[in-house]
Amino acid sequence: MTLRPILLHPDPRLKTLCKPVDDMSDALRSLSKDMLETMYKAPGIGLAAPQVGIMSRLLVMDCVKENSEAPRPMVMANPQIIASSDERSVYEEGCLSLPDQYADVERPAEVTVRWIDLDGNEAEETFTGLWATCVQHEVDHLDGKLFIDHLKPLRRQMITRKMVKYKRDKARDRA
Ligand SMILES: [Zn+2]
């Protein structure tokens, strides 16, 4: 397993529509292991393939937060949100591609998702709470959308300016 570098906003690859996965392959299984390891290490609760520069519709997540609970690593290829509740909920979201930036985002409180699992089988599940927010955030990534795209333009621009500075400082530190 390999830790993969996570792309930081702004980056054109984070604004790109990702291609469907043809088939669950060993290459994708190995990529999803890398992505899970990268996500746990960060630490984060979700990671989408474009965040590591792979423009495929693949995401991983694990929203188990209590140390007393067993981890639940999930891998989804070609996830589709097939139903969303009218009821909405607000969570303060963050993103591994936007370190230290957080904002309240309102989304459907409950979603049903259909995807292809690691064995190549179709799976379906209804998510609520943090899981529902996380899976919607990650599916957005596959459509080239970030959580800041749900915010008012002024707030989005402010965060983007901070990120441009963050990336500049980081590049300078490395130089
Ligand atoms: Zn994200």
Automatic annotation (TrEMBL):
Catalytic activity annotation: N-terminal N-formyl-L-methionyl-[peptide] + H2O = N-terminal L-methionyl-[peptide] + formate
Keyword match Hydrolase: yes
EC number annotated for this UniProt entry: 3.5.1.88
A Pfam family it matches: Pep_deformylase
Coiled coil: none
GO molecular function: metal ion binding; peptide deformylase activity
One Gene Ontology term from the biological process aspect of the record: translation
Cofactor note: Binds 1 Fe(2+) ion.
Known cofactor(s): Fe(2+)
Entry annotation: catalytic residues: 138
InterPro entries found in the cross-reference section: Peptide_deformylase, Peptide_deformylase_sf
Annotated keywords: Hydrolase, Iron, Metal-binding, Protein biosynthesis
Chain sites annotated for binding Fe cation: 95, 137, 141
Nucleus in keyword set: no
Entry function: Removes the formyl group from the N-terminal Met of newly synthesized proteins. Requires at least a dipeptide for an efficient rate of reaction. N-terminal L-methionine is a prerequisite for activity but the enzyme has broad specificity at other positions.
HAMAP family per record: Pep_deformylase
PANTHER family: PEPTIDE DEFORMYLASE
The family this protein is said to belong to: Belongs to the polypeptide deformylase family.
Official protein name in the record: Peptide deformylase
Species for this entry: Flavimaricola marinus
The gene coding this protein: def_2
